Amino acid sequence: MSQWISPATAGQAVDVNQRSEGIEVENLVIDFALDNAMFKRQYMRALNGVSFTIKAGQALALVGESGSGKSTCARALCRLCQPAEGVLKLNGKDINDTGNALSQAQLAKQVQMIFQDPFGSLNPVHTVRHHLSRPIRIHIPDLKGDAIEEYMLDTLERVGLSPAKQTADKFPHELSGGQRQRVAIARALSTGAKFILADEPISMLDVSIRLGILNLMADMKEEGIGFLYITHDIATARYFAERTAVMYVGHMVEWGTSDSVTQNPQHPYTQLLISAVPEVGRKRSTTSQEHTKSQIPLWTPVSKGCPFTGRCPKVRPKCHAQMPDVTQVAEDHFVRCFDYSE
Amino acid sequence: MSIREPLLSITDLCVDYITDDGNARAVNQVNLDIHAGETVGLAGESGCGKSTLAFSIANLHSAPALITAGKIKFQGQDVLTMSEEELRQFRWSQASMVFQSAMNALNPVLTIGDQLVDVVLAHETVTLAEAQKRSEAVLDMVGMHASRMKSYPHQLSGGMRQRVVIAIALILRPKLIIMDEPTTALDVVVEMEIMDQLYDLKEEFGFAILFISHDLGLMGQIADRIGIMYAGKIVELGNAEDVLSRPQHPYTQGLLRSFPTIHGPKERLEGIPGHPLNLLSVPTGCYFQERCSLCEQICVDVMPSIEQYKVPEERQVACHKVGQGDVS
Predict the structure, then answer these.
(1) Where in chain B is the domain with CATH 3.40.50.300?
(2) Contact B140/A at CB under 8 A
């Protein structure tokens, strides 16, 4: 394998003005318009007061059920949806600040996404070479001619797709699901991205392939790439990510180091989530009625209280009135629940 | 071994897919008995033949799949030699199926009620009112309100749709329900709710389940016995708890090493090296030889047959090296 051009030095120089390396999200609020009202527009609050940081070479897992706002976080970081409130910063720069010099191309060069479905995220009429060489041409304009090819083959080798030359000529339908997801990862890496937002990258893959992709991403992490790992599988979150945030209806209800959150869950929702994971050698646990008989609420800008009240076995009157403040459980472990703060 | 006559008895079943490049044997000499009221789990990677096996039980295969050998007996009756009319009556009233994707299993332009009533009217001579009453009762059993009869599939969440599919499978009170990855597309909490419900229903009505999944943890919670399939063959079969706690076949051991756990030690897992076997070019010996760390000359030369062992409990394993490998 010829020498690898490190993501930080590939293409243009690193921004000298950066104060802090990493992604910072502060008090992010995102509203989506509901299309059922033509004159009096109504909104749903997809994310409410979400804050987190992702450091280079580390992974943050966002865990929660469908519709909890995990993917919306990733989309906001790619500037695919506009926040109603809050600040998103990349290396200290506000990505939504119009006076900021950070163009869409500059953002895309540093922050890339991997999607759930590797069958849908690759164009079936183009070869692997096309999928990789295009982002290289766009984001690393200094590379010309053979250098592009060499860089591309290096990237393919790096994600374990060897022999790279043969893989490059293949179409997506000639690859297995796991290989396709590796191409998707290679494509994200090829821009020299420093942060990868992985939206359920293994949930569509077969059991025996999942671990390979997780281990590959763990290797990328060692090389200094930061990950936002979106998943509903809290066991893989613990395996792959240093830190885990549990989301429920657009709110972060518990977050901290993955070990602390999974081994010592404090929020009733996290406890429910962990008890629901079927594990080899553990007996079937039965759900309490409170958990099962209620629906997930539609959160709006005027909704009050804790979103989990409808399903919470420990609900008390004040939970309906006010979202609990953040309470520190351990050194790096926080929870928003009155049950803990009292 | 039980002295009871099994509800379903599969002997030496082979299913081939006829392709331009040759015949791929997706199910290869499989023997499996399911007793009344028993839950049998089948696990393995994609393409190992577990769904193909399930489809054979209801004789649902059409070209290019072809059942080339074997017998499937349901209460002594051979499913494979039934006439079209006998099959029509057998399917659903004796053995029903829950498919993986509830979204595709329901008709989007018919209400839930219509689809339930349709099943009853197709199999039994009852009045429409009676069919509706039974449909409402079966919806209630899966934890849904009777008012949902008027809903269309798109108005329901994924978990509710899966409940409807289970209700449709239950409505004729079959003796066997085949479940092909029934909760794979669902969130863990919804999955747990549905599994709880299923468990209660099974206790109440005593139907047998063939449960197909790749999630060994889930299987351990519901199955009495587990069969592990690799490249069309059952490589290990035994009591669910024993198979999961003391796996004997290297493939089962590898499969169990492929899942990160919440409570276990946190270490880098390596899973199973290599790729699933290409069924168009199978080796002479053991199908797992290329990916197996215990592989020796005998494994390359001779295909191991599935044998009964006491290790210490009763277990069927197809491996020359039983007892020599260990879960690392």
Answers:
(1) 8-94+174-260+271-317
(2) no
- Kindly state whether B266 is in contact with chain A, defined as any CB-CB distance less than 8 angstroms: yes
Q: Assess if residue A236 is contained within a domain.
A: yes
Q: Given an 8 Å threshold on Cβ–Cβ distance, is B188 in contact with A276?
A: yes
Q: What's the pLDDT score for residue A74?
A: 93
- CA A329 vs CA A267, A273, A335: distances in Å: 11, 19, 7
Percent of chain B surpassing pLDDT 70 = 96
Q: Which segments of chain B have a pLDDT < 50?
A: 1-2, 327-328
Segments of chain A with pLDDT less than 50: 1-19, 288-290
Domain with A226, as residue range(s), is 23-95+102-277
* Predicted pLDDT of residue B154: 86
| Structural domains of chain A, count | 1
B24 DSSP β-pair partners: B17
Q: Find which of A180, A207, A214, A238 to mutate to test the B interface (most B CBs within 10 Å of its CB).
A: A207
Q: Which two tokens stand for residue A339?
A: 């049950």
A280:B217 CB<8 A: yes
Residue of chain B whose alpha carbon sits nearest to that of A176: B275
Residue-level pLDDT at A283: 64
CATH number of the structural domain spanning residue A152: 3.40.50.300
Cα separation, A162 vs A169, whole angstroms = 12
pLDDT score of A210 = 87
| Domain B8-94+174-260+271-317 = CATH 3.40.430.10 | no
Full-model pTM: 0.84
Residue of B45, B46, B189 lying closest to A276 (CB–CB): B189
pLDDT tens digits along B172-182: 999 999 998 88
Residue corresponding to tokens 């498919």: B99
- Segments of chain B assigned E as strands: 8-19, 22-34, 39-43, 65-74, 77-78, 95-98, 176-180, 208-212, 225-230, 233-239, 307-310, 314-317
* Among B103, B163, B188, the residue to mutate for chain A (most A Cβ within 10 A): B188
Q: Is B221 on the interface with A (CB under 8 A)?
A: yes
Contact A238 B46 (CB under 8 A): no
Tell me which residue in B220, B266, B272 faces A280 most closely, judged by beta carbons: B220
Q: What is the per-residue pLDDT across B56-78, written as a single tens digit (0 to 9) for each?
A: 998 888 888 889 999 999 998 89
Amino acid sitting at position A6: S
pLDDT at B228: 95
Would the CB atoms of B268 and A215 count as touching at under 8 Å? yes
- Any domain includes A52: yes
Q: Can you tell me whether residue A304 is helix, strand or coil? A: coil
